[in-house]
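Many introductory courses stop at the sequence. We go one step further.
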Amino acid sequence: MIGNIILPSTAAAEWPKLREEIRARVVASMGAAPEGASGRPAKAEEIERFEKHGLTHVRLRYHVLDDAWNEMICVLPAGGGPAPAVFCCHGTTPAGKLSVIDPKIPNRAYGLELARRGYVTVAVDQFGFGATLEGTTQKDLQAAFFRRYPDWSLDGRRTLDHTRAVDALQTLPFVAGGGVGAVGNSLGGRAVIYFAALDERVKAAVPSTGISPNATNVFRSCTYQTELSPALSRAITKNGVIPWDYHEMIALVAPRALLVVEPWNDSENPYVAPTFECFRNATAAWRLLGAPKSVSMLIHGDGHDTTADVREAAYRWFDRFLKQG
């Protein structure tokens, strides 16, 4: 059983303090971000603008930290904006940001489909994919990263890729204010839940196959993908104690809009019952804050994927909370 974070006696006035305590544990598990990782002025430079698939694409570079820049592609709706922005977070693929704006990968082409629905879509290269791999390999890139930032994590850097992209978006004339959305599957789903939990500018989020409780997927932290958050892996390996789990991470999003998409037959996460349990426990935060209609879960049987009907549900979620909310 995953413990409850909100008891029947918990009052809404107590939530801010409880939330900060949870957030502190999550952030600590991501390691120590270098000085200057946040609070810097936004810098964005347009590289090129082109028409593709009947839509205007704007390729930009933006500053992340130190001497590191990253790339994103914004796909504009008809009329060019300003319009609400939705981040389309890519999964584990060398193509990076291009994989979510490619009609040849229809179940991941969120960036094209949402642009046709009237959104500015934002595809960012997560560190270790896409343009960040130019001239190197993922192995060498990660080794160089940990030599420079030995106390940090890939989860930390990849979350920063997205939060700094929001900073950059706020300087662009085709993006409407009022918060952004985020959608992604697999590694993209993991990115969405971290992004939404730690950046309150994410107004509506749809992580797909991105929630895998630490307690039941402990092998990932101890033997597989330990580079995602080394501090978390070390803590679990040392004494078996889980510093935080996903019911707490999910609750950090409350009372903002969250639609969790999870299959009951995910090949990458066979222990589905704890996933559903942690979601249910987290929803207590929305009830406590008087926003129960802002959180929902879609359970399907299509495995580690986002089929057309699942994507339609995600897009309707954005219509409800970004266009009308």
